[in-house]
């Protein structure tokens, strides 16, 4: 019995040491991965990287990690032209089946899913914010975007008729969708009225409807779905063969 007791104590001690070594190793790896991702994506701040699964060391020996979560507080994505950027808030991605090279210089995830938010003030940059003529004597421009409820965006438009600004802005509920995996499209469900003036639908939609390209997300992930929320549009992203580094 004494020998068995000693053996159990030794097993517990070695087990504890293994757990400690495993956690130290995973913390070091998370820091290294965060630094590499920051350099690869040219980020201004170090992202959050969390390696899931236990034990970590046996995953390393196998050359593949089950699950890595990545969080980037502020990411500037390409907006469709090389000079412009759009800010993505709280980009979070769950990377599955991450395989890495022998020298750890590159890592690729089999699949990735995640979420992000684009604030309304960022999306507003794409809308017609300068007064534009929609009919003789009538100009209009978008002055605000907000949550319209039920996944819709409320688009607020100011109009001037014959030199007189309408006393109250008009608004319209719009649907927001993803097209081609890299563009957010806002399209009015109906048409606002500007002081009773009849205006061709195409001219009105030139003001109310717009789209924003969001390209160059980390690792090549793409937009999947989008809906309006209180603080902006919430986007679901996904991808395959997503490059984490290298």
How would you summarize the topology of this molecule?
Elements: H1 2-40, E1 48-52, H2 56-62, E2 64-78, E3 85-100, E4 107-119, H3 120-124, E5 132-135, E6 138-149, E7 152-161, E8 164-165, E9 170-179, E10 183-188, H4 201-208, E11 210-213, E12 222-229, E13 232-245
Antiparallel strand pairs: 1-2, 2-3, 3-4, 4-13, 5-6, 6-7, 7-8, 7-9, 9-10, 10-11, 12-13
Can you describe this structure in just a few lines?
With 246 residues, the chain is an alpha+beta fold. It has helices spanning 2-40, 56-62, 120-124, 201-208, and strands at residues 48-52, 64-78, 85-100, 107-119, 132-135, 138-149, 152-161, 164-165, 170-179, 183-188, 210-213, 222-229, 232-245.
Keywords:
246 residues; 2 domains; 7-stranded antiparallel sheet; 24% helix; elongated
Describe the structure.
The protein is built from four helices and 13 strands. The chain has 246 residues and is α+β, with helices and mostly antiparallel strands. The protein folds into two domains: 116 residues; 91 residues, no CATH class. The protein is elongated, with a radius of gyration of 26 Å. 27% of the residues are buried. This is DUF2993 domain-containing protein. InterPro entries: DUF2993 (IPR021373). It holds the Pfam family LmeA. It comes from Streptomyces swartbergensis.
